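Structure ticket #2291
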Amino acid sequence: MSKTLLEYKIIPRLMMLMFALMSWNVCDWFMELGAEATTQQTAFVSTIVGAATGAFAVWMGHESK
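Resolution: structure written out below.
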């Protein structure tokens, strides 16, 4: 079982899936706010989307090895 988890990289892929779902939910929440969004909410969404971009770039770099 442990070898299978490591060989197929199940945990990193599951973590990336969860992060993608979280990012999607945050963006969906923000779009529902519309014009009432505050500066703090805008900064929060920008941080989450930026982190998702960075995490995806790192993950893709490790997948190619």
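Closing remark: The chain has a mean pLDDT of 88.
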